[in-house]
Amino acid sequence: MKRRKQLNSENEMIDFKGNNPNTPRIRKRYKQSLPGRIFIVCLLILLLFLFASGVFKSIVTRFIISVVPVETSLLEDTIAAEFLVIRPEIVIPAPFSGHLEEIIHEGERVAKNSLVGYLMINAGSSLEKTEKVPILSPQAGVLSYRIDGYESILTPQVWPQLDSTKLPDLKKQVDKKTAAAETDNQAIESGEFFFKIVDNLAPCNLYVEAVKNLPERFTKGASVDIRLAELDNLALNGKIADLEQTETGSKILFSIPYVTGLEKIRNTSGSIVAGKYSGMVIDRKMLVRKEEIAGVYLLQKGRVVWLQVDVTAAIGDKAVLRGLSSGDWVITTPVLVKEGQRVFSLH
User: Fold this and answer.
1) Which of 124, 132, 219, 283 is 20 to 30 A away from residue 52, measured at CA?
2) 9: number of Cβ within 10 Å
3) Model confidence, pTM
4) What pLDDT score was predicted for residue 276?
5) Could you give the 3-state DSSP secondary structure of residue 91?
6) Residue 338 structural domain
């Protein structure tokens, strides 16, 4: 038998449990006490303060550090320098005035007596037919249209007599601000230099002056590595052809093999490799000295271990060490740890 809903004294319908279905239920809320909320706020403020002041970071790094494995590598000691490139080249004057129509382009190799291009000249008035005069290469080599002014003084007759005492006077004869000539479709006057052929089978010379603090091994005939910025710092092995010591430094004439791209360069920056050192290369900040004895902190089996090393060279912010083994894990931030401390690592 179904139980019927009843009416209360105010004629409101109620169920058999005495609840009014039209009245919304009120859920109970458990409000946090005021002291608890104050504690949470204070804790957040403390954490923000520690993070901002670096204390939090310091606490973390006491247990989590960064390490790097060491491997044998090469460190170079270099001397910055400005070089003058002297090439075995023959410069060709224009036989007539006109415009050059290129067949062989900048940097391409040509054979002797091969067609370089045509010199377009007018046969009489501008209304008459244009004449095309073929231009041939007088020798084999690399063709270049970059005329900078040095060609007139660094002639083939001068190359055998080049030395470090004559070159400064030769440099004064040339306006360094002379821009490279662009001859393509440009007007060329009769007798004007308009292209040159570089002998790519003959060695080139590099001249540098005002070099200080040369190693003792830098003597005439010594082998030296050189890097040129415009050749992407490619290592070029050269020999000192001539050397002059002055009060302000040294003047050196190097002999180097020809490298593709040298025909485009006359003045360039670079470096002279004064020394090479092989060993374990690390940042100098990773060194830890104990009573003037150099060492490093290693991570071994979760603990910090100090190891004595020999510093064979220190160049800039790098150092070359002996005493380490390949694959040793060196701690990069030694100021944050102590010997014997147990830590975790982040590689």
Assistant:
1) 283
2) 5
3) 0.67
4) 92
5) strand
6) 65-74+278-346
